[in-house]
Amino acid sequence: GGPHSPPHQYQQMMTYHGLSGAAALPPQFGMIPPDLYQQHCEITTTVPNANVGSVIGKSGAVLNDIITTSGAKVQISQKNDLVNGTDRRVTISGPLRSVHSAHVLILNRLHHGGPESGGM
Question: Considering the domain boundaries, does residue 119 fall inside one?
C-alpha cells in the first residue's frame, strides 16, 4: 500500500467544533455514522488574500453558489481582520455533511481558480 494523504499544499489543520467526542474528522471520512452527518458543526480555515477572489467571485456569485450547493453557511472575514493581513478567515457552519461539502468546494476553487483581480 502507498500513502493516502491529500496534496500537501491544501493540507490544513481543521478543528470541527460541536462534534461530541470528535475534535477533528478522521481520514476515513466514509466511516462516519449517518446520524453524525446531520450534527451541527463549525470549522474555521484561512484563505490567502490573493486567492480570496476566486472563492468569492464577481459580486459574490461563486460564494453564493458554494452556499447554495452545499447548504452550509460560509462567512469570509474583512480584509484586515487578521493581524498579518495576508490571510482571510473563512468560517463554515451547518450540518457536518454541508460543512464538508462547502470546504471541498472552496478548496477546489483555490486549486483551480487561482488569483483573480477584483475589488476585494
Answer: no
Q: Are 99 and 43 contacting, i.e. CB atoms less than 8 angstroms apart?
A: yes
Please state, as a whole number, how many other Cβ atoms lie within 10 Å of the Cβ of residue 75.
13
Q: Is the pLDDT of residue 35 over 70?
A: yes
Domain that holds residue 15: 10-20+36-113
Report pLDDT for 27.
52
pLDDT tens for each residue of 90-105 = 999 999 989 999 999 9
First to last CA, the chain: 45
Alpha helices, DSSP H, located in the chain: 34-37, 52-56, 61-70, 96-113
Alpha-carbon span 80 to 32, nearest angstrom: 37
